[in-house]
Sequence to fold (220 residues):
Amino acid sequence: MNNNKKMVEHLQQYGVISSEKVARVMETIDRALFVPDRTPAYADCPQEIGYNATISAPHMHATCLQLLEEKLQPGMHALDVGSGTGYLTACFAMLVGPQGRAIGVEHIPELVASSINNIEKSAAAPLLKKGSLSMHVGDGREGWPECAPYDAIHVGAAAPEMPQALLDQLKPGGRMVIPVGNIFQDLKVVDKNPDGSISIRSESSVRYVPLTSRDAQLQS
Ligand SMILES: C[S@@+](CC[C@H](N)C(=O)[O-])C[C@H]1O[C@@H](n2cnc3c(N)ncnc32)[C@H](O)[C@@H]1O
Fold:
């Protein structure tokens, strides 16, 4: 697997990507710009990025983009909690466009700094410059209230239980995709109905690093 387009084609052939829109955005944002040097960028597995964190595997990025696709229309607001390398936040920004907002929140300041460097080399750079895409240091369990409510929330680390602040920041009609659990985790799809009630289903079993405090992560 030696280029980004081939990685996307491979995910299409294996039925992971069925959406043209998701295929196009993953082609546009080159994964190689987001992984550390000498890392096999296009292999379908997570890769170490330091600080006991990983960039998620391409098939997980594709799955989450597809689950959220309807809530990533131009002009919509998207929050990426545990934004790590910034890859998925950049994809969100491309989909919601310059009239939308894509916010990344990550609690390791060094990862936020490198995610900004990564994005500056990518097709999402103009959106970062104009401010529709922004990356922040913070505890993602608290969300990012300044730009709430969100049509789409993605959580890139496993929460021991559903964070109330994130449920509160979801717009009626909005959707959150979040891994929940400790050792055994389920990828949950959380829909906030127009009347404010919540519907939750499990998409699949997954394995993510924990959504935790910075100290706990650095000591793990
Ligand atoms: C699987 S990794 C990165 C995922 C990201 N989607 C990517 O592919 O680059 C999960 C990230 O969540 C971050 N994280 C864990 N707990 C957090 C918290 N409480 N607040 C913000 N970020 C957190 C970790 O530092 C890590 O970068």
